[in-house]
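Objective 1b. Sequence-to-structure analysis of 2Fe-2S ferredoxin.
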Amino acid sequence: MPAITYVLPDGTEKTIDVPIGMSIMDGSVRNNLPGIVAECGGGCSCATCHVHVDAQTRALFDEPAGEETDLLEFLDGADGDSRLSCQLIVTGECEGIRINVVDSSA
């Protein structure tokens, strides 16, 4: 299982092992990490799992689909590093990546 570091909204970091095939969102929710609300449960319909990922990390994941792009377009605080964590599926190459969690509960 790749170790993923979540940089939480308060600046603290939590590293957890996330199984291959699970989403970054599921890894956070299953470990009760703050920031990712995931109201839709991973259906790419609410944008409450907003995270920021750097360019090197983005390259490890598929390009965003139209639904994700549409949601991010209207999301406050979204920028070029924004992704929805429900759409980021962990692979073996994800070992050691850092995910910056945006506080979706605010």
